[in-house]
């Protein structure tokens, strides 16, 4: 496989604001000894380091990319938002949305993050690469057209899709979001359109609280082209695969896109501090294998994975390594040091049966 890996050291230099975890410092909230936001560069840097050590990096086509242009950004974000973001970035940084702070120069780093996603989608859509992974930072799936939120400053995936559409490379796309948090920004962009099928698997009742409902299916021309699967806390390996096999993959095949893009958050992994799910590195590898096979069957294998959330600095690297191993077809494996412990935490047969029935009931309720 010709698998591209798009990354740039400069994205690791993005800095959040005066936070301790997800809480602004002040009052009784003490500063942390190190770090601020959970969205740390170390999750991404340690993934790249692990791949370097195992040798997986050497099997990939490593590339960087230029920053997204103003023209690229304007396909998704209005001038008013871009101007406010740039002005705040130029004058020391700050926060102009909800839980989305940035330091001076944050605008340029965010445009680079979006640029990596653009380049990955362009390379795959044009046939230059079979598939590609964009190690984008800051992430993008919570950013709405006129407002950043949830660590996300620009809508990386919609920007990449709209650029590819403007260049005549694609007409229809699927965005599959398996981050533990609902992909509200991507949904907002395409809620009234039928050329992009958006699918979000997320923990019910997690951030953001007001979006991601089962019956939010789109409006107008987009009715039926937005699919939310709010999953109960404790969903494990087999539950995620059941959701893919019974609902997600059939819907992707029925839509018949030109390309599949995965908004790949690793925060549904069991050790993650911002989620309460029980996925493992093995889960991400298995989901990737299924989506890769689906892409092979319906869109000549055109698959792009864009990095989103995931906040366990220790465990994210093993999850990402499993994804890239599957994408590239490599036999280079990074043994999961937590596999035995996490396997023992998987739902017991009675709970798993309940979870599978819940997913089947969702499909029935939605008429799928």
From TrEMBL:
InterPro entries: HDACs (IPR000286), His_deacetylse_dom (IPR023801), His_deacetylse_dom_sf (IPR037138), Ureohydrolase_dom_sf (IPR023696)
Pfam families reported for this sequence: Hist_deacetyl
One GO term of the biological process aspect: epigenetic regulation of gene expression
PANTHER family linked: HISTONE DEACETYLASE HDAC1, HISTONE DEACETYLASE HDAC1-RELATED
Molecular function GO terms recorded: histone deacetylase activity
Family statement: Belongs to the histone deacetylase family.
Protein's UniProt name: Acetoin utilization deacetylase AcuC-like enzyme
Domain (Histone deacetylase): residue spans on this chain: 38-324
Signal sequence region: none
Protein species of origin: Sulfitobacter undariae
């Amino acid at each position: 496989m010709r698998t591209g890996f798009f990354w740039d050291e400069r994205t690791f230099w993005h800095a959040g604001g005066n936070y301790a975890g997800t809480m602004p410092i002040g009052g009784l909230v003490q500063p942390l000894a190190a770090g601020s936001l959970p969205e740390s560069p170390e999750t991404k840097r340690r993934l790249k380091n692990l791949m370097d050590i195992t040798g997986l990096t050497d099997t990939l086509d490593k590339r960087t990319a230029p920053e997204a242009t103003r023209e690229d950004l304007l396909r998704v974000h209005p001038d008013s938002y871009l101007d406010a973001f740039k002005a705040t970035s130029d004058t020391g940084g700050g926060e102009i949305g909800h839980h989305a702070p940035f330091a001076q120069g944050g605008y340029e780093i965010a445009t680079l993050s979006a640029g990596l996603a653009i380049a990955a989608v362009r390379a795959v859509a044009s046939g230059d690469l079979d598939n590609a992974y964009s190690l984008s930072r800051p992430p993008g799936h919570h950013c709405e057209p006129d407002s950043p939120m949830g660590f996300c400053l620009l809508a990386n995936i919609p920007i990449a899709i709209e650029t590819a559409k403007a260049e005549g490379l694609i007409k229809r796309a699927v965005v599959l979001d398996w981050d533990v948090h609902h992909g509200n920004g991507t949904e907002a962009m395409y809620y009234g359109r039928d050329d992009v099928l958006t699918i979000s698997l997320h923990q019910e009742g997690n951030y953001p609280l007001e979006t991601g409902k089962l019956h939010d299916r789109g409006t107008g021309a987009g009715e039926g082209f937005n699919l939310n699967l709010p999953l109960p806390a404790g969903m494990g390996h087999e539950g995620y695969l059941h959701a893919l096999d019974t609902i997600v993959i059939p819907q992707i095949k029925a839509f018949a896109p030109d390309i599949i893009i995965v908004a790949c958050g690793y925060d549904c992994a069991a050790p993650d501090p911002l989620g309460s799910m029980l996925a493992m590195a093995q889960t991400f590898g298995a989901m990737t294998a299924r989506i890769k096979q689906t892409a092979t069957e319906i869109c000549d294998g055109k698959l792009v994975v864009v990095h989103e959330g995931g906040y366990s600095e220790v465990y994210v690297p093993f999850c990402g390594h499993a994804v890239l191993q599957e994408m590239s077809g490599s036999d280079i494996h990074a043994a999961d040091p937590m596999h035995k412990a996490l396997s023992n935490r998987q739902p017991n047969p009675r709970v798993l049966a309940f979870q599978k029935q819940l997913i089947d009931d969702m499909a029935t309720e939605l008429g799928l």
